[in-house]
Input
Amino acid sequence: MSKSLQKPTILNVETVARSRLFNVESVDLEFSNGVRRVYERMRPSTREAVMIVPIVDDHLIPDS
Output
């Protein structure tokens, strides 16, 4: 029997940067196995948005 998936617990969310288009949030998570991680996510400021990021050679994001 498979274990049901459990979502991580969000311990803290903090805005760390703002621009006209995005808010960058730091998200502190704790997973069901006790591991804690801090991730950053980009949230749209006022509207939904799409970011397109070029990937070259399957592993490299070029510097502009």
